[in-house]
Amino acid sequence: MASKKQNPFGAMAGCMPTPSVDMSMFLRPQARMAEALLKQNIETLDFLKTRFERDRSMLADLADAKDPNEAMALWTTFWQRMLSDYSTETNKLAASVTEIAEQAVRTATEEGNAIISATGKKD
Prior knowledge:
The protein has three helices and no strands. It has one domain (about 25-120). It is mainly alpha-helical. The chain has helices spanning about 10-15, 25-65, 70-120. The radius of gyration is 28 Å and the shape is rod-shaped.
């Protein structure tokens, strides 16, 4: 005789009231956090694309250099621009990380408030 499997939560779930909860209270903060992270990733990928295009262009220019002085001028200009680009991007990234950290605090606060609201507890 086969035994029937029972859901261990079945008996409890049938007698427990299910609160009506607006799930957007929980999902909205997470969506904003994900959006901030994705924006940072897009910015980083845009920077890398631009840098790689400049690297490729420099190699083409270097291959066309007629003499060592021209090659050295190309290298000097390339390194100056690269250092400037990375410096600018580092500043943008620092600002973005600060923004994401602030968003994380707001997200945690909103999630905490949503949990309090969903459970009906108030201090």
